[in-house]
Amino acid sequence: MCLFIKAISETRIKYLFLILILCYTVAVPQNVLQQHRGGMQEEQDYVVATGLFRDSLFAFAQMEFEQFIKRYPTSHRIPEIAFLKVECLYFQGQYEKALVDYEHYIRNYPKNTYTPKALFRKGETLLRLKRYNAAVETFKSILEKYPESEYIGETAYWIGESYFASRDYNNALKYYQFSYEQRYKNRVLDYTLYSIGWTYQTLAQYSQAISWYDSVIVLTPSSILVGKACIQKAECFALQKKYSDALNGLIQCREVVARAEDKEVLDFYIAEYFYQTEKYTDAQKHYEQFLSNYPNSRRIALAEYGRAWSLLKQNYLTEAANQFKSIADEKGELSSASL
Hints:
- The protein is mainly α.
- The chain has a domain of 70 residues: Serine Threonine Protein Phosphatase 5, Tetratricopeptide repeat (Alpha Horseshoe), CATH 1.25.40.10.
- It is 79% helix and 0% strand.
- The longest helix has 26 residues.
């Protein structure tokens, strides 16, 4: 009996629920329901398009963004979608088209939250098109219009890069330094430090260059530029004939560098600087380790020559002669193969 009463109660609840749904459908105007369904479709289209963009499928994302703009011209998301559509052109390397569309976006949305980034991208696009003067003007306008922008440090860096590309090294240093001063808002701090070092090296001011390369190693230890900074630091020492300092610096860096390609370069130059410091036994050992560890390196021929010369300097004349003969035979085979 109790089970029968429970079953009746559950049935009544189900019917009551269906009646409520029916009443809601009748009471709510159809245009409101359509708007609700339309909003759901817009949300789905937005998720699909931005998902394609996040997955770097820029050609497909661009098409979806264009369709979104046509379907929902009054959507509150249009400024974002319009910006991302231009980004698709930029990331596909269509810089001329992207430049036109960034300028169009900046005119149409002068006060939008995406406008500073659009202006920044315009500057990057001009830089990629090697229009350095126009790039500088664009980047400087960001410093003037948006002094609190998150892009300030990066903007100053790219102004420096533009000047460097134009061989205006003094102005390049000025803006690199300003970029460094914004280091707490600078997403390219490692590149800024490295570029200051590289500019001083270009100007043959090696002590200053070494100091800034050290800053890359110390302040941004996880950067992909650490290996390059180590190598350029050693180069600065070598240009001053300070081969022992170059060697010691490379050996220290060998312990902290993570990237395999950087270790390969370091290992080669460690052998080279052992040779330059006249430590021929150590040089031979490191050349041989290099040849064993990196058989496919593009520096193999140089390492073979280095080993041969190290043997010669130790008066291992027969081994040195055999090594030089082997190198000559290999070159002859390569020359014959290319004919």
